[in-house]
Amino acid sequence: MSLKKKILYISLRSGFGGATMHVDQLIRSFSNDYDIYCAAPVEEPYGVKLLDELGREKYFVLPYRSFSIRYWIRLIFFIKRNKIDILHAHGKGAGIYARLAKLFTPKVCLIYTFHGLHISHYSKLMKRFYILLERILGKFTNQFINVSDGEKQDCLENKLFKESKSTVIHNAVERNTELKLTREELRHKLDLPANKFIVISVVRFNLQKNVWEILEIAKKFTSNQNILFLIIGDGEEKELIEKKINEDEIKNIRLTGYKKNVYEYLHSSDIFLSTSLWEGLPYSLIEAVQAGLPVVASNVTGNNEVVTNNFNGYLFDLNDRKKAIESILELFSSPVKRELFGRNSKKVFDGKFQLESMLSKTKKVYSRCC
To answer: Can you tell me the distance from the alpha carbon of 274 to that of 202, in angstroms, rounded to the nearest whole number?
Structure first.
């Protein structure tokens, strides 16, 4: 009989994205220390992978990004039947399921990671409703984890919890040491042009990531045959994006779809571009600075904790497309600055986004629970 504490990770996504990758990281890293369970949809890549690894008995299938009373009731029985010790919910929907479930499983320790507050685009009425709901649900939450200092500050300003109930734990990635090829060799392998200046973005195709702005920025460079915009990812807006690229004849953009070998594409590129409308702490930027890329990014929560203006990249306000274009041009025309910013990006990664630190801090939160 196992004496390990039982952790149930809950998410309403298991496809491409930072939060789902985060859950997969925790499960892989803690599988020897805890008895792991998961409740999530079954999507490629992470849901399918985790279902196969954990098996049906330890994987509770939830509907994708929707709340169902039937599934909520079944989740409560799943928690009780398996005698779960810790619930760790990731994202708003999962947080609702978990905290309503705690009403009927009061002995379970409940930890909630926001992965971004994400209310700046809400209507006033919706914002008030969500804040009220979060304040109520917060009473059933033992500990909050914020993935960035800015996210925690946003939560405190909206009085979602007391400061003592939250720990800031930055997202992190494993240090990649597997790449043996030069950038030129990687470009040949990936069928990328050898001599072009590549501006890369790794995104989900949805409202938050604001891929439409990348298209508008790319349009301004169509006369420059030396610059290519490379977009890696997938999502609900992909067909609309593809249609827009074809209609507007934007020839300097290449879409690759979802790729497992993102690091190879990052190391093949010259700079990273993010146009997100809001963030928690994006994994794509952390991966970019680990790869030593200068970054041009929207000045939103999370982005501005990875990018320091004029140190390892440039930040631009959401309504300032001109600044984003000027920043890309500056880096295109200055190899010296690209090299400096690239070195600084690696320093940022080494100083803030080490996986060992993230795991150690998370484990301390678990230890405080039980």
So the answer is: 8
DSSP 316: E
The per-residue pLDDT for range 223-246, each reduced to its tens digit, is 999 999 999 999 899 999 999 999
Residue 22 scores a pLDDT above 70: yes
Catalogue all structural domains in the chain, each as residue range(s) with its CATH number.
Answer: 6-172+354-369 (3.40.50.2000), 183-352 (3.40.50.2000)
3-state DSSP of 106-131: CCCEEEEECCCCCCCCCCHHHHHHHH
Strand order in the sheet with 295-298: 253-257, 227-234, 197-204, 271-274, 295-298, 313-316
DSSP-assigned beta bridge partners for residue 255: 231
Beta strands 197-204 and 166-168 are: unpaired
> Is 324:297 a contact under the CB 8 Å cutoff?
no
- Integer Cα distance of 58 and 37 in angstroms: 5
